[in-house]
Amino acid sequence: MKFDPTFRVFEVSVRELAEREGFRRIGFERGEGWHRLGLGAELHARVLNARRSAQPGYRCEVHLQERWPVEDWTALITGRLDGCVQNEDGSWLVEEFKSAYLPGSGSVLESHQRQLRIYCHLWRRMGNAPVAGSLIYVDLATSEEFAVAVPCPEDVLERELQSRLRELLAVWRAELKIRERKTAAAAAMPFPHASPRPGQQQMMEAVSQSLQAGGHLLVEAPTGSGKTAASLYPALRHGLAAGQQVVFLTSKTLQQRMAISIFRALNAGGAFRTAQLRAKDRMCANDRVLCHEDFCPYARDYPGKMEKSGLLDRLRENLSHFDPDAVFAAAKEEKVCPFEVQLELARRADAIAADYNYVFDPGAALSHLDREGLASAVLLVDEAHNLPDRARRIFSPELLQEGFRDVAGRLLLQPGELFEALSRIVEDAAALLQKTAGALEESAPIGEAPPPAQELRELWKQWEPEFIRYLSWKRETKLALAEDPVVDLHFAWQRFMAILNLFGPGFACVVEKRPAGVRLALVCLDPARAIAPVFKAAASAILFSATLSPVEVTRRLLGLEKERTAAMTLPPPFPRENRKVMILPQVRTTFAARARHYGPIASLVAQMSDAQAGNGLVLFPSYQFLEQVAGKMPAIAARLIVQRPNLAEHERESIFQALASAPRGGVLLFAVLGGMYAEGVDYPGELLSAVYIVSPALPQVSFERELLRRYFEETEQAGFEYAYLQPGMTRVIQAAGRLIRSETDRGVIALLCQRFLQQPYASHLPRDWYDQSPLELIARAPAAEIQKFFGKI
């Protein structure tokens, strides 16, 4: 809602008028977001088109706007009714459509009826009378309609609307006093550190300008520049004054912790509310994750227990920051779902810190941050270089023949017509995948093929009603399975069907013949297709990272509107003499040449390790490369630790402990580029003295990576840049940024490969690493230069 005190006008949508505060029941809603994205919208359009074809005078998606006096204000009510038609006797029928599973009298929501009644009343006030209303639920599985006649008495609706509008105005006036207190707190908010660094001050000014203009800002600044504080400080000041929620998004928990520490520092007086969101499986109080009121005691009667306990108000009154541990303990004590309570608090918080998925993944996105909600949200995207690949993964679903076959086998173990029907459908789906793979040449294990869209849609239509029957059977038999392959298959298939509705330019369909069966994948090549609508809807977005160059490539990949987006690059905040950057062209690391250079690389690393002071980090593009060099390492003074794939939590912790309590010769850690030790980890103080990066770390050549290269070659004439060069060099610069984190840190960065001196690789090196040319960084005697840097000679 928008209130203009100057002209005493406020704008409110029909949906906002119809909704009331309340708590929803907990059921099988895992796929709600994907239905909103594609399946539900497609069904809605299909029903309206059918109405229009059957009744030539039928009007669809009619925009309404009505002015309404409220005390000394004017309410501007806006909305879009789904459909209406005038009958032969001159009366009007107004219809509102909602999609649902198994619609019936039990699924009719009061908010849906209120919404329809308001539409009817507005339509009548616009000179169309008499008016009748029909609320129509459309079965997502069968497309069958269930109609509910909704009475729309004029005098009652007049009083209801007047009362509701006065209530909203009263709420705004009450909240105005709260906002005034928050605005005052924002104005007096202290910077979280003694004083901002020069680069931070520059960034804060640019962030403030973008927020005031409703624009987006890309900020590239070296690691250690204080980007988190420099974005959150102006964003919170703006958000509190403007009534916009600040949403801090990151791909790693460590960055969330940094944001939370700044939340606490800025909110010492408790003037506003902040929250951190934790993943569902870590917020589950049940002995297994079964999010349904029939199977989980914490989901059972959730609305009633929340109303009776007053938990939400109690937490909001007593806490200024909603820590997941505190929320979990309080919710568990009241026997209500901690994850749902966390979501309720997040909706009401002034600022939240969360994973990317809570905004960009339709299956996990916060419901209050829908397209309308985003208009009142400021998005702060940390480590924004990670977002394009994350978006590609979210919007690249796959179906596995082995998965269908496994479920078919399990279903046949149960007697009855229901299980025979389910089994028949999944066997037909497995056969369809096999048939699709038949389009490939006999010798080709993988290739592109048109998606079997129509056949999949037909099977999906058969599957959905049977799956709903299966859920009913589970409820009747009280069968509670923490891991149910049938349910998992359903949601994987549902996601695939939602993306299939988006399929077109920027997507590819890949078929792969594997030993275990056929894989059918929809591959998102262009992440902008998927996430641009989010940025378009947001009030503003501030995106920052140490590696966003070339900025135009990043802007294009994220789908940021060119006319709405500004960019800035900040210089390093620390003394340049604290860092020694070297390029070692003595070795080659291309795939064809690397086998001949494993030994020379090992020898160079050993010499540099013995010359350095303290711990060293050696980063490779793959585990295979790492292991080959590790096997040729000569004896060194440092303790050699080699990262293995899929380390357990205690193994990761033991490596950090080894770095912190290193022996006299230090520790030399071999790890992979793009992994946890190369990105998103702090090595404070003297924990790290050198980073040796072996190879530009280009992504491995694969069929799907080549599709990416081809797509961007056709659309941007820069296929290698988008598919290989930028992601590879981004990993390099991110890894180099682990080294210098404060004014007192000193260390060496060494890049091992002659390609770092060649174009286009050299153009991606940070400009502050050299004066005129990257050739200045060549080190012919690297060990001697390192000794000199650390003052050993």
Sketch the major β-sheet.
8 strands, parallel
Radius of gyration (CA) equals 30 Å
Strand residue content: 15-25%
Q: Total number of helical segments?
A: 26
> What global shape is seen?
globular
Q: Can you list the strand order of the major beta sheet?
A: 11-10-12-9-13-18-8-19
Mean pLDDT: 90
How far do the termini sit from each other?
A: 69 Å
Q: Report low-confidence residues grouped into runs of 5 or more.
A: none
Total strands: the figure is: 25
Helix content: 40-55%
Describe the structure.
The chain has 793 residues and is α/β, with parallel strands linked by helices. It is built from 26 helices and 25 strands. The strands form four sheets. It has an eight-stranded parallel β-sheet with strand order 11-10-12-9-13-18-8-19, sandwiched between helices. Strands 1, 2, 3, 4, 5, 6 and 7 form a seven-stranded mixed β-sheet that branches. It has a six-stranded parallel β-sheet with strand order 20-25-24-21-23-22, with helices on both faces. Strand 16 and strand 17 (517-524) form a beta hairpin. The radius of gyration is 30 Å and the shape is globular.
